[in-house]
Amino acid sequence: MTFxxxxxxxxxxxxxxxxxxxxxxxxxxxRLEVTLGEANEIRxxxxxxxxxxxxxxxxxxxxxxxxxGSLCGPFCRWSTTLPSRxxxxxxxxxxxxxxxxxVGDPAFWSPELPNLYRLESDLSCGxxxxxxWSQEIGLRRLGIRGxxxxxxxxxxxxxxxxxxxxxxxxxxxxxxFAAVLQNWPEDNICTEADEIGVWLMxxxxxxxxxxxxxxxxxxxxxxAIGQHPSVCCVVLSMQDAVRLQSVICRRGTLLVGCEVDGVxxxxxxxxxxxxxxxLTLSRGAVPHVDWINAHETLPLxxxxxxxxxxxxxxxxxxxxCDALQSRLAAWGVAxxxxxxxxxxxxxxxx
Length: 350
Known about the structure:
β6 (about 90) and β7 (about 95-105) form a beta hairpin. By secondary structure, this protein is α/β, with parallel strands linked by helices. It has 2 domains: about 1-135, Immunoglobulin-like, CATH 2.60.40; about 140-350, Alpha-Beta Barrel (TIM Barrel). The protein has an 8-stranded parallel barrel. Strands 1-2-3-7-6 form a 5-stranded antiparallel sheet. Strands 5-4-8-9 form a 4-stranded antiparallel sheet. It contains 8 helices and 22 strands.
């Protein structure tokens, strides 16, 4: 789990008395990075780091800066737990300003129990408050084991419904036990999914609809949605996965995948630090036979395209994922003469 957040309050520069210069540009303000460290059923370490983005501020902040605050929770829509407050403990001087909160009896985020914590923190240099942050976070234990996704100690096989840009009926998605694959999900959708418990797969495609987005825009969005525990997976193009390797390597438990054509022969090379592959299939198609032995260490998710369905028909689309699973299982048996083809990590329809 890694979250990167911008300050919610733009500070006044104590060195300037000119009002036109007293507010620094937002892009020059320090970023807050929140990372889940060692975590088990007894305790979880939540690390907070401040990264100065203006080179002339870095030395001052790293030399005199102190990050303070607290972590309060858990809060959950579907259960009641008495919240507790954990104070951030300063980690001393280092390459960055950092602190840690050791949460006892942590409540981790999952679609069944979407537990959230409220982080209130500020950065001080001497007696001056430089920046403040206020955000909700979820402690998410998500990773890859073998060819599968594992969340909070359990194997997860998401069955997703592809949804275009715009609003999503997340309440129906949750009641249908469906994940949602959406192009460029907006913050309000991610926040709602955090609160009610829906697995989101964010597809950050460079040319979606009438917009063409740069790698910088994709990088910024990748950092922003990392603060949402519901966004478990991000899907990139092969080209952007190569360009954004420096960003991907700091993703925490956010799983990053590449979208490839499943009907065509598998690509020979896959960008490093990629967690899974999303294979796109036309309606009723099966993967190219060479996928049987290709990229055997990576989990595979199948996406069957269907333009004529309504993405709000979550129950029917969820059933189509089950049908896709059966078809791919038969394909694997028919083409695997020596051993059974690996399990698929997930399925998407729409």
